[in-house]
Fold each of these.
Amino acid sequence: MANTILVGAQWGDEGKGKIIDFLTENADIVVRSQGGNNAGHTVILGEKKYVLHLIPSGILRADKACVIGNGVVIDPVSLVGEIETLKSQGVKIRKGQLLISDAAHLVFPYHRLLDEQREARKGRNKIGTTKRGIGPAYGDKAARTGIRVCDLMQPAIFTEKLRAKIQENNAILKALGAARVSFKEVNDACLGAAEKLRPFVTNTVLYLHEALKAGREILFEGAQGTFLDIDHGTYPYVTSSNTTAGGACTGSGVAPHRMDRVIAVMKAYTTRVGEGPFPTEDAVIGDILHGMGREFGATTGRARRCGWFDAVATRYATMINGTDDLAITNVDGLDGLENIKVCTHYKIGRKRLEVPPTDSRLLADCEPMYVEFPGWRQSTTDAKRWTDLPTAARGYLKAIAELTGARLAIASVGPGRDQTIVL
Ligand code: GDP
Ligand code: IMO
Ligand code: MG
């Protein structure tokens, strides 16, 4: 399987969790290297549904190791909650199965309150964040005022750092007219969480390098999607980390030349949660998908905005990520449609655009130019092999892969493990 980076090629929720769970069979270690519990990765096993936020989606295969890398921001209380939820679902996590980087930064309640306040103040220009405090936590990291897991592992040092941070942030929250946080409550909760997390905390960079030396194969699980990338996405309507392939290196400490393959996951159509430009957004396909009970967010439950497949966006994603292979999910979401539109380029005024403009305001003004494909109007959910798919579905998938500029490797026709077609 070699060392593989898996990223989302759109605006998140492409089905990364499902594909990671599937690919983990042939990997040794699964690594999350960016994002926080803003992510919601769904894995369906039989009748059971698991939604992973911070823990890699490889965790459901007991013989594999999962790493939360240095580039992730961790809400320690929420991570303990996630471990306990998994336990209540019958997934026990042993020492050695989960490894948490001692260099990862922490998310605290004041980050969440600041996230909320900044959003409220932006009014109609809000980003539509998950309100998990992700932006303020990465902000502290970049400003070199963050608190890390290694601090949390030393209670006396942690308590002093937290006291100063809460003092500073309470003054800001007061000025904003917002609720303040109780130092004692946060400190107690974090120190309680620290003891539960301690067995898992280590220098994950060393761990991964030892693993590489031993010839073990690593799968890097991206969170969010290419157009939510802080550098390459639809800024400012983005998240606060590098969601693209490069983030896997900086967020794990594994060097670029050790990476062998990049897989991009994309839906057979497009969705986006939160605000920001979305050229191919379309109420018709949105109503159809929501009517089927699909496309509600795994983290916040918000209805996702829906639209046609945007090949301008995915082609750009291929360039940034260096995508080798594609996994196209939710093919079955299009099963009932008579005709399916695909955006091949944009127009702005008289100008034809082959790549998304850098400025989000211009992107919002872009008019999508479509070609139409015939639908297949039959269920694909039982297809096991490529040749089981209707001819029109195969034609559609080949066409969108070609427009995206990478090799079609996986087609997914349902949320289950056995609804995955490998080409
Ligand atoms: P992620 O954030 O990229 O891991 O994606 P999410 O889990 O947030 O959202 C993807 C949704 O699509 C989840 O509910 C998955 O169970 C579901 N899913 C993934 N692949 C397929 C598919 O091929 N067909 C169907 N029907 N659902 C899928
Ligand atoms: P997964 O990993 C979809 C979106 C939010 C908002 C913007 C910024 O499940 O694909 P943030 O809370 O990160 O500051 O919000 O990014 N967003 C996601 N959208 N899937 C996600 O993760 C997302 N994580 C953040 O909706 O628009
Ligand atoms: Mg998701």
Amino acid sequence: MTDPNCIFCKIARGEIPAKKIFEDDDVMAFHDIRPQAPVHFLLVPKEHLATLYEAQPAHQQALGKMLAVAGRLAREAGAGEGFRTIINTGRVGHQEVYHVHMHVLGGPEPLGPMLQRRK
Ligand code: 5GP
Ligand code: ZN
């Protein structure tokens, strides 16, 4: 369950470098290459999964673990007073990389509003 052309599969296989902060059998965490906050890392399932639309019960362990380890990793990365998790899906969600990933974004300063309010 790996896609030879997928950039996050390549990172999970160690074929291209990333600033890895956590890895176990199910998930991997690494710093985003274009950070949008002082703390900005990504948590991904090691198995290829293009979007949340394709998620099945078999993915529960990896998807659940992404949430279960986010707080500890955020604290260790310097976001001890709060953080935001985002999973972008598809065109409407502005997903750029089609391997499910959860952004973890943190301060120290409070982040901006989640979405621009519609007028
Ligand atoms: P999306 O818009 O799909 O939710 O976000 C994709 C994220 O992946 C972006 O924040 C982008 O900076 C990050 N990204 C894209 N390519 C790479 C890469 O090769 N290495 C790392 N570490 N992050 C990447
Ligand atoms: Zn992949």
